[in-house]
Description:
The structure holds three protein chains of three kinds.
Chain A lengths: L2 H33 L6 H19 L3 H24 L7 H23 L14 E3 L2 E3 L1 H23 L1 H11 L1 H6 L4 H26 L6 H16 L4 H18 L11 H12 L11
Helix pairs in contact in A: 1-5, 1-6, 1-8, 1-9, 1-10, 2-3, 2-4, 2-8, 2-9, 3-8, 5-6, 5-8, 6-8, 9-10, 9-11
Chain B lengths: L1 H17 L8 E7 L9 H17 L9 E7 L4 H14 L4 E3 L4 H15 L2 E4 L16 E3 L4 H14 L5 E6 L2 H17 L4 E7 L7 H8 L5 E5 L5 H11 L5 E4 L6 H7 L7 E6 L5 H12 L9 H17 L7 H7 L6 E3 L4 H9 L4 E3 L18 E7 L2 E8 L1
Helix pairs in contact in B: 2-11, 3-4, 5-6, 11-12
Chain C lengths: L2 H31 L7 H16 L14 H23 L4 H21 L1 H4 L5 E2 L10 H28 L1 H11 L1 H6 L4 H27 L1 E2 L6 H15 L4 H22 L7 H22 L24
Antiparallel strand pairs in C: 1-2
Helix pairs in contact in C: 1-6, 1-9, 1-10, 1-11, 2-3, 2-4, 2-9, 3-9, 6-7, 10-11, 11-12
Amino acid sequence: MDLFELLNFYVIPGIVLGSIYALGAVGITLIFAILRYAHLAHGDLATLGAFIALAAVTSLGISPLAALPVAILATAAIAVGIDKVFYNHLRERPKIVTVMASLGIALMVRSVVQVVWGVDTQTYTRGIVRPDDYFGLRIRDREIYTVVAMVLLVGGLQLFLTRSKWGKAMRAMSDNPNLALLSGIDNKKVVMLTWVIAGGLCAAAGFFLGLNTELKSMMGWHMLLPMFAAAILGGVGRVEGAVLGGLIVGIAEELSVLVIPSEYKAAMAFAILLFMLIVRPTGLLKGKVL
Amino acid sequence: MKTKFLTLAAGLMTATALATVPAKADVKIGLLGGISGPIAAMAPAMVDAAQLALQQVNEQGGIGANEKLVGVVGDSACNPQNGTDAATKAVNIEGVTGIVGPHCSGAVLAAAGSVTIPAGITLITPSGTSPEISNLEDKGTVFRTVPSDDYQGRALARTMKDQGYGKVAVAYLNNDYGTGLAGAFKAEYVDELGGEITQFAAHEEGKASYRSNLAELAKGGADTLVIFDYGDGTGLTILRQALENDFFDKFVGGDGMKSDAVINELGAENLASFVASSPVGEKSESLDMFNAAFKGVGGDPDAIFANTSYDAAFLMALAIEKAGGKKEGVAAAMVEVSNGEGDAIRPGEWKKAKELIAAGTAIDYKGAAGDHNFDAKGDVPGTYALWEVGSDGYEVITEMK
Amino acid sequence: MEFLGLVNYALFMAIFIGIYALLALGLNIQWGFAGLFNAGIAGFFAVGAYTSAILTTPAADGRIGGFDQNFVVGWIGAMLAAALVAWPIGKICLRFRSDYLAIASIGIAEIIRLVIKSEPALTNGARGISNIPRPFGDLGYTESQVAYLIIVLVVLIAAYFLVERQFNAPWGRMMRAIRDNEGAAKAMGKDVEFRRLEAFIFGSALMGLGGAIFAHFNRSITPEAIDPMVATFLVWIMLILGGSGNNRGAILGAAVVWIIWSVSEIATDRLPHEYAVQAKYIRLFLIGLMLQLVLRFRPEGLLPEPLRGDQRTTKPGVDPN
């Protein structure tokens, strides 16, 4: 197998897939670090984001890329709303209660998608898009958008977290919540910001999955486990770790076909994760141990 | 306050449960389908097609002594837990006379094993393709209108050989449908016909990318990809990514791939090299009659398993009519109304069938998806045709032998 | 709706509740006693179901077994197999705490599911195993359900008393000590790793038994039954809603959640006929909403963990002296 074949059919799809996982994993890792629970509705929230973008495309007649900001804003608002109505009052309870609540939210969000948009497989644009040739590399335009958008969104988030006042507050909450609260950080605002970011990124993950393949009402649920694997692989609370984890899971899934039977492709993310947890329990980049 | 709320919630639930007393002396049949869960995209069209049969029955004189035939829709969610639960509710709470469904083989096996066989209710599934269903100790009460995988896989292999296909690669969904078809296809294509399969690989559903799978499948130089999957699920993703990356020249699908979603999402102009097999009645006017009727109620006749679902429901209605509405007689009547002997009844011809049954004349249902002459195991042999994408949807290329 | 129909439905529901109660009890040993976040219930459920299926079905072509044994052999085999599978997993994974263990166990359950789907020589692959004998399955519909329910109840009550005894015994106190303050327990000389492994294996064996009982009731087991939603997450909802750390809570939770799960469909069927399919989506919404409401008003579970012996004060914050 020559190098270009390896890159074109295994590595590049892996990077694209990894970018999608990364967008979801960043949200998961932030919620893990700041709110300290596993948010199981993350996949279905991504589905909702993808379908909101579809609604924008079909009703406003705008291009899919222009619909992305709409979806991000709407999903972020919905995420904040869900937190206010359902998660907020469970904050003082054991975290497992919120995990269960998020499972219920996953069912509710999925059912809303199925009632509003139906269950048929849909796409943003009809037809197929053949890849362009860049010096032997075959890449489709939307794959470039996916990776670029991931880098921009996560890069922007990283800047926000390290430079801005509220970003620093979020990191403080993640590192030491008691100290952060003592030093006068407004917990409510931090929680809200977390949901805005997680919800927005979630919508982006769902959107790009839909853009690269199709929109299905179960698509987010199927992505949930690899996204969790990516978040933990990278180290909980580490944004750049989640990106790295996402890319590793994505590329490993695609490369796995070379060595193991393809029906075991889905097991790859977990095999890597188990190996990682055994040799380095804090994740690739040193994350926190919950 | 807390307890009050809980009592109230529990009370509401019980009240709704108890309010389930049937209003009239309707005849009910259960329509169980995987409405939530992995085949959520396929189930609504299947349920709608079955409802069409019921609607025709009611428009043309109803069942028995002018009674209404009512479909009780249940969600089997494509797993045994929900499948048995839905079947129990249909049988015991709704008091159905027969059950059409569930859709997935696992749910069929469990619902039959724990509910319908013990309760003596006849079950007919439009899409459970597992060979395990044939081998159930079912006292003759379990039927299906979808032919077993074995028949279709082998017929497709023979037809492809006749059509001059050479080296092929096979990609199949890792469930009972995909593995069954792929296994039968391989047995016939390689062992019987001496064809060559270069790659033979299963895949899991719901992944976002299958390009590496396709690259693996393309190794070995086959120019044709045979896909045993669902055209509104993973099969669509695979076909799309194969077309976009020029992996194969020709594509062949099983009946699961003959879906409208493929044309809608990929565009007919891109599908010149795509053919799919699908069941068709021996007299294909049966299929035309169903297609016209289903379009008439806003349905999509190309939806996967829509025609088998319709046939299953229509057969169930015929059998109930024949059995005089008695649950016990439905299984025997099911064989009688479709054993290849008697006056032909085609989709929608309820009035004619009702009159013939009343007169004691033997009838034989010739369905949209085949003639449905049940064998001793409740299976049908099936008749298939190979379809291509024309300017106006799917068109028959050739009958499959 | 005939009376007999209601009886049959109630019997069916009771059997399912019994099966899920066993799973919830198993999880309670792991989470309620030992604080182990096992999110791979489906894996042990599957191992038990398939082991018993292989042991009790007649000989079949193309896969190992069947060995045509009595169902008792099958069920004991199911517990042993689940325990055997749990042992190495626990050995490796129990050092991860909390959420790490959760994702690792989900991963292992998924791998078990893929193996079961993809290895026909072992499990008949995606087609699953059918014609599993049901004890007293030759009786009439109602009688056979009654007989099976009695068996399930006997097993459940035996399991409940066993677990309850252990819970109140020094072993249970030690487990809770480990759960609540690992460091202190270690300092007291308790072998924390070993005790955790013990709890993990016991719990998994119960889950395996639950799987076996499920397979025999349905007379079949297919990979579709190992769906994480119905085999893992649903059990978690039952335990948390019923009250983790409380065995009666686990059983009550199983009953309440399964009744919500099952009866909600009857409720949404009241919607107009045209929305028959949409009603099923709305049903899932209702289930999610019910869960939110119960968690909202009873976040500690319907039956909270009982306070025992040495904790004489009932009001938090009051100085015990």
